[in-house]
């Protein structure tokens, strides 16, 4: 006589086996699903702000196009002779205002200088001024604004009043006044002027970012555990407050390049024998009817450069700001 509990045991065994098979099937499905180890991003460790931003930037066509243009500008700034064999200072008055011809695809300006060669070498000056001015402004403004936002009190009040004074100074007018007494033809007086009048904007951005970051719970927890002020600033606040500074500095880089060209055009920025797009635009302006090519090529190069840096800054802003996703 058979045991009546055998069918129940068989059903239980079958049920347990089915459950085990179902669990294994679900685990395999989850493992192969997007976001699992075999498909998509890994699910182990969540991405940080910077890795998440880089993940978005690589898929942003605006960032890719602007980055390619900027990389090309950096390349010709470091090695202009790679695409321009002549000298930007070699001029022949017999060829003044001549148009495009073999060996001179952009033609010649009013002094008989090769417009193509001067346009290529002018990128070195513009990129150098923009990068150095941006680094100086970012470092000085971030340090002063970060300290003011972290410590507050009298230091914060004094810095706020100083920044208000600098904001009241018109940039172009300040350049005309300060740089008119400078006789040097190097880029350093122009860079110094830009840093002098540019740091208050970065300082205000850094101050606000630090004030916001220092109120977070992890900063308060680190302070309660006895972390020093320097550790709080460098390890906990600065990494989380630097994003808006990077965005503003990237956009400002294009603005500084345009400002250098404006000051050089007005005759108070870079001076000959320096090669600058602003100098070439100023020299070609009287001949715009007879030789428009001498004005259009350096103006176009300046416009493309400024636009590339502004587009790069917009793409970085969209990637670093979670509210814009």
Describe this structure in words.
With 325 residues, the protein is an all-alpha fold. It has a single domain (50-324), classed as MetI-like fold (Orthogonal Bundle), CATH 1.10.3720. 69% of the residues lie in helices and 0% in strands. The chain is built from 11 helices and no strands. The protein has helices spanning 5-32, 49-57, 61-78, 115-151, 153-167, 171-179, 188-213, 217-224, 229-265, 277-284, 293-320. The termini are far apart. Residues 1-43 have low confidence and may be disordered.
What is the gist of this entry?
The protein is mainly alpha-helical and 325 residues long. It has helices spanning 5-32, 49-57, 61-78, 115-151, 153-167, 171-179, 188-213, 217-224, 229-265, 277-284, 293-320.
Furnish the topology, listing elements before pairings.
Blueprint (H helix, E strand, L loop, with lengths): L4 H28 L16 H9 L3 H18 L36 H37 L1 H15 L3 H9 L8 H26 L3 H8 L4 H37 L11 H8 L8 H28 L5
Membrane topology: Multi-pass membrane protein
Pfam family, one: OppC_N
Keywords: Cell membrane, Membrane, Transmembrane, Transmembrane helix, Transport
Sum up the structure in keywords:
325 residues; disordered N terminus; cell membrane; membrane; transport; transmembrane helix
At CATH's second level, what is the architecture? Answer: Orthogonal Bundle
Q: Can you give the mean pLDDT?
A: 83
User: How far is the first residue's CA from the last residue's CA?
Assistant: 72 Å
Portion of residues within helices: 55-70%
Envelope shape: elongated
CATH topology-level fold name: MetI-like fold
Helix and strand string, N-terminal first? Answer: HHHHHHHHHHH
Unreliable spans are 1-43
* Alpha-beta content class: mainly alpha
Main beta-sheet strand count, sense and barrel state: none
Proportion of residues in β-strands: under 5%
The first-level CATH class is given as: Mainly Alpha
Number of E-state strands:
0
Question: Which superfamily, in CATH terms, is the homologous superfamily?
Answer: MetI-like
Number of helices: 11
Supply the number of structural domains.
Answer: 1
**C-alpha-based Rg, rounded:** 30 Å
Family: Belongs to the binding-protein-dependent transport system permease family.
Subcellular location: Cell membrane
GO biological process, one term: transmembrane transport
Membrane topology: Multi-pass membrane protein
């Amino acid at each position: 006589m058979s045991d009546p509990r055998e069918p129940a045991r068989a059903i239980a065994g079958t049920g347990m086996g089915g459950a085990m098979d179902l669990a294994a099937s679900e685990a395999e499905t989850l493992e192969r699903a997007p976001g699992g180890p075999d498909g998509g991003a890994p699910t182990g460790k969540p991405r940080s702000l910077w890795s998440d931003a880089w993940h978005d930037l690589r898929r942003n066509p605006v960032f890719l196009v602007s980055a390619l243009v900027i990389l090309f500008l950096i390349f010709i700034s470091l090695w202009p002779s790679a695409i321009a064999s002549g000298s930007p200072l070699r001029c022949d008055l017999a060829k003044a205002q001549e148009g495009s011809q073999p060996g001179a695809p952009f033609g010649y300006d009013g002094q008989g200088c090769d417009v193509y060669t001067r346009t290529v070498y002018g990128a070195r000056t513009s990129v150098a001024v923009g990068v150095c001015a941006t680094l100086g402004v970012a470092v000085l403004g971030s340090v002063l604004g970060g300290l003011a936002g972290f410590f507050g009190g009298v230091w914060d009040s004094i810095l706020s009043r100083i920044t208000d004074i600098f904001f009241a100074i018109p940039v172009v007018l300040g350049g005309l006044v300060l740089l008119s007494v400078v006789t040097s033809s190097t880029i350093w007086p122009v860079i110094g002027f830009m840093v002098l009048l540019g740091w208050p904007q970065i300082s205000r951005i850094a101050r606000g970012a630090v004030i916001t970051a220092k109120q977070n719970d992890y900063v308060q927890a680190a302070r309660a555990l006895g972390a020093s002020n320097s550790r709080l600033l460098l390890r906990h606040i600065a990494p989380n407050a630097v994003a808006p500074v990077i965005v503003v500095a990237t956009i400002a880089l294009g603005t500084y390049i345009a400002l250098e060209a404006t000051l050089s055009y007005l005759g108070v920025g870079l001076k000959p024998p320096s090669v600058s797009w602003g100098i070439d635009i100023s020299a070609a302006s009287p001949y715009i009817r007879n030789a428009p090519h001498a004005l259009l090529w350096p103006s176009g190069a300046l416009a493309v450069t400024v636009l590339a840096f502004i587009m790069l800054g917009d793409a970085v802003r969209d990637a670093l700001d979670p509210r814009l996703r």
